Amino acid sequence: EVSCLEWPVLLSFLWGMTPRIEQVAGVRLLPTYSYFRTYQRGDICRVHADRPACEHSVSLTLAYADGTAWPLEVADQPVAEAQRQTVRGDEDFGGEAHSGYAMAAGDAVVYRGHDYRHGRTTPNPNRWSAHLFMHWVDRDGPHRGHAFDGKPMLGPVDFRFPG
User: Fold this and answer.
1) N or C: lower Cβ tally within 10 Å for the chain?
2) What is the distance between the alpha carbons of residues 79 and 62, in angstroms, rounded to a whole number?
3) Angstrom distance (rounded) from CA 45 to CA 92
4) Distance between CA atoms of 8 and 84, rounded to whole angstroms?
5) pLDDT tens digits, 4-13
6) Which residues is 61 bridged to in the sheet?
7) Alpha carbon distance, N-terminus to C-terminus of the chain
8) In terms of C-beta distances under 8 Å and separation of at least 24 residues, what long-range contacts does 9-16 make, across chains too?
9) Are strands 118-120 and 72-75 parallel, antiparallel or unpaired?
10) What is the pTM of this model?
11) Which DSSP string corresponds to the chain?
12) Residue 163: CB atoms within 10 Å
């Protein structure tokens, strides 16, 4: 797992995707954070709702070692504030209606990560899979204080290119 604070190219990609995700979400957004993660064969992602910094989320599948789609599951209805879990998730949806999205490499699912429980309850069928997760908050919404994951901006970035 690598965060955009550890690998600035992820932050650049997050900023670059912001205008497109604004079109999908229908609101002006501020980036919060992104991270890259690999899962191994047999891994699951426990069912959970994310913290407020994940008001608008994108799960992007980058690659599968064996080319077998591994579905992301998202609840069909938002959860009440009192039912949200951010640290420990559940092994399944507990009878809660949800939909699965079989994602090929290059596919993305856009959802409200803070409002909808999500996870991958079926074990990963691939030797490994690679994923990028990106998150934003509504620029004018109640979670705007989570922009940039609550961290101060480091100042201007000067990308240097050889030649």
Assistant:
1) C
2) 28
3) 10
4) 30
5) 677 678 888 8
6) 131
7) 32
8) 10/34, 10/35, 10/36, 10/132, 13/132, 13/134, 14/134
9) antiparallel
10) 0.86
11) -EETTT-HHHHHHHHHHHHHHHHHHTS-EEEEEEEEEEEETT--EEEE---GGGSEEEEEEEEESS-----EEEESSPPPGGG--SSS-BSS-TT--EEEE---TT-EEEE-TTTS-EEE-SPP-SSEEEEEEEEEEETTSTTGGGGGGG-------------
12) 2
| Type of residue found at 17 | M
Tokens of 98: 């949800």
